[in-house]
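Quick look at the format.
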Amino acid sequence: MKKFLFIPLLLFVFTCNQKVGKKTVNASLDPDYNKTLTTVSFGSCNNQNKSQDMWQYIIANKPDLWIWLGDNVYADTEDMKVMKEKYDKQKSNSEYQKLLQSCPVLGIWDDHDYGENDAGKHYPKKMESKKLMLDFLDVDKSEAVRKKHTGAYQSYSFGKEGKKVKIILLDARYFRDDLVKDEAPGRRYKANMDGDILGEEQWQWLEKELSESDAQVHIIGSGIQFIPEDHGWEKWANFPTARNRFFRLIAQTKIKHPVLISGDRHIAEFSKYQIEDLDYPVYELTSSGLTHTWSKPGSEKNQHRSGELIIKRNFGLLHIDWQSGQPILTAEIKGLNNESFLKQRLEY
């Protein structure tokens, strides 16, 4: 009789939802949903058909949280049945299931899980695709991202007064204007001077989220890179008006300890940017290539890069040390066998 009762109880622990602040995310074995964050893990570009051997090394770092930064699966379809099957394959993977059992998981999409390579606002199945992504993340049906937000943008808060971390996940797909093709060799896109990324609804929401925040650390995620300007692929700099507006908003609100995180590029790198009228720099941590990276060694200019360009499969970590009263942030890029490729303290 005891064995009979134990099985459904175990299933309940592994499948029930967990509250994170006012948000609901997928199951975790840690019942303290509002814990002080000390290790945040993140990554992107995960092909569900390739080896999922990176999860064991991510879990070994005992993260308090995992953040998907896009291309969480490679769907590339307008057939929602096909897309769901790909999400289901990833979610049922035994190695990924271990992550779901170890910490909460949040996320935003990029293009391949949105549904089409480099797609923006004209992708015809974006409403249906949004639902499938939120289902994959086990976002509760009562949350604002499902009921109020047209796009997939979300925010989450962790920790108590004096040790709060706010996480803002921006949707760089649902409202994004058209990219402009670049005919120059080795470049795909050039600047769309009048184009937008977030759409006015999301801009207004973002301004409110930043201006009303009392967090000590702000982690802002986007599928595409915020700071880099030099490469010819997808990036915020393809929409300079939107990029400038974003950085002006950070300067205007003067949020504490801003950290940008991004994916998409199949590389890892740190970037550092000084915004006008802001007394401290903004850092960006790009981690991309959980299952694949560039097929051969290469180089790429980034005038804002801090440290080396990493062309290996990787995941990102943000360590937060609260012992001194003020948070001390250290960024790290790791890969297979838990090898550390980059590690850097963020100086504010």
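Next, a different chain entirely:
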Amino acid sequence: MTPSPGPVVPSERPAPGKRRLFWVFAGPAGLRAGWSIALAYGLFYLFRLVVGTIFVTANLVHEDSQISAGSVALIELIPFLAMIGAGALMAALEQRRLLDFNLAPRRALPHFLLGFAAGFAALSALVGALGMGGWLHFGPAALNGADALRLAALWACAYLLVGCVEEGLFRGYLQFTLTRGLNFWWALTLEIVLCVYAFATARNDAPGVYLVALLGLFPCLALERRAAPRSGFWQAAWVTSTLFGLIHTSNNGENWMGILAAAGIGFVFCVSVRVTGSAWWAIGCHAAWDWSETYFYGTANSGIPAHGHLFSAGPKGNPLLSGGGDGPEGSVLVLGAIALLMACLLVHGRFRSRAEAVAA
């Protein structure tokens, strides 16, 4: 007797068209990096629009001719809240924790404090060199007593928010996500797009973007040719650093050296993620650099002067040496400060490695 055939079970494999569609949007690690970034930053801008509308309606922020600690803190609170909201949603979608995006809490406070000390030391060394060379002139102290302490705290809060937002967006989610989904050719494509955008905007500081892109080209190509392990991290660092320089071209008063400096410091912050395992060192260093430049020494910060600072200092002489309207980071001497930051970071990493080896 011929056995009767069993029930027909439909195949669980998707149809070829569906498989191709699934491949476009998802890979072995889940949603592909490009779609993740597009969704994350789309959510960020949507939340920023909503939170900003609420702040404007409540008259918490308004057009101000002078940059002050209070105005910076309130303005930066908008992208900070938007970033947290978008990050929480992406963490849930990708089945991760918010802290997985290069914000590991282990030794967060020591990393932050050491980064803060390094940022203050590097900026102070730069200001000192400019003063000794006669390219920066100092005025009398503008504040004293209770006002000095109050504004020091307010500016510290403001620039802590700035550090959290910029490092969270660049060295946090973007660096983390690009690392898992980027190769040299995608990185090169993105670099070309960034350079074309810089050219299209026709700004005088755009050469700083081109130079950053060129400086990263050959090291990243060498990593690709050697098929070096973890090369994705350095390809991502190339892209995020160039983008970090590019967004600074929107500041009035920037010069090409300031753009190069912003990108160079951004790369140091990427290295800090690799060395320490998180972005907390970068957050502390970023906050200290801006706090020292704006409040403590009273110089322009990325071409932006501010109201309410402890000392007063202004450029003198050749803008390539003094920084001109950009501030100290627009001076060629900033390259020495970046090298000092890198040295501080590598020393920190070496002591950390030794401490972990002893503990083991």
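The longest strand covers residues 136-139.

See the schema section for token definitions.
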